[in-house]
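Feature request, filed as a ticket because there's no other form

It would be nice if the structure record came with a short human-readable summary line next to the tokens. Right now we just get the raw output. Example of a typical job, pasted below so the devs can see what we mean:
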Amino acid sequence: MARDLTATDFAAVIFDMDGTLIDSTPAVLRSWSRWAEENGLPAERLQGFHGVPSAGVVRAVLPAERVDAGIARIDELELTDVEDIVVLPGANEAFRTLPHDQVAIATSCNTPLARARIEASGLEAPAVLVTASDVVHGKPAPDPFLLAAERLGVDPTECLVVEDAPKGLIAAKAAGCATLAVVTTTPRDELDADLVVGDLSAVTWSDAGGRIRLHLVDRAYNAR
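Raw output as currently delivered:
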């Protein structure tokens, strides 16, 4: 049963990055299209992996003997293409409003790529950043969100996760977190979350006695 997020106060908010806070789609498509071509793979072979760490994608589509080289190559391509990356609506506003020590990013990017995209976008990022480099099992495993909650010093069941990808939402739910989904990369009917909104400009945030309260800008438009 979906939780009423506007009636719940949270200890912390954990944001996914790509597709939630920033739009890196053009760069991602360029890098992976070139990678697929170099590896003799049809582009459709890479569908369905949104939200999965790049290493996990490579392991799923290449034979074992080619995995290490494949991971190194996609890392190289993505790190050298950070053009056209922009902050999505409401993202910087959220970081300006939310308490610095109650916010984290948990992304499927590795650390160098996450930092490169944050810098390229101009995103006002929080201090806590969890990447695929920090965990053994990335999304859809719950590990990134569990580690983010640990670094924030809060119980994951007291956290709200903001995601744009189905696999990220699976990870958040497995961690015991409440879920807010944004319709920036995935159709609304494919997002299984407590609440689904267009993007972060559809919500605002306020202090609730040291906890975080979510408000809908337009309840009728954003109602699921």
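Something like this underneath would help us a lot:
The chain has two domains: 5-24+84-222, 25-79.
The CA atoms of residues 106 and 144 lie 6 Å apart.
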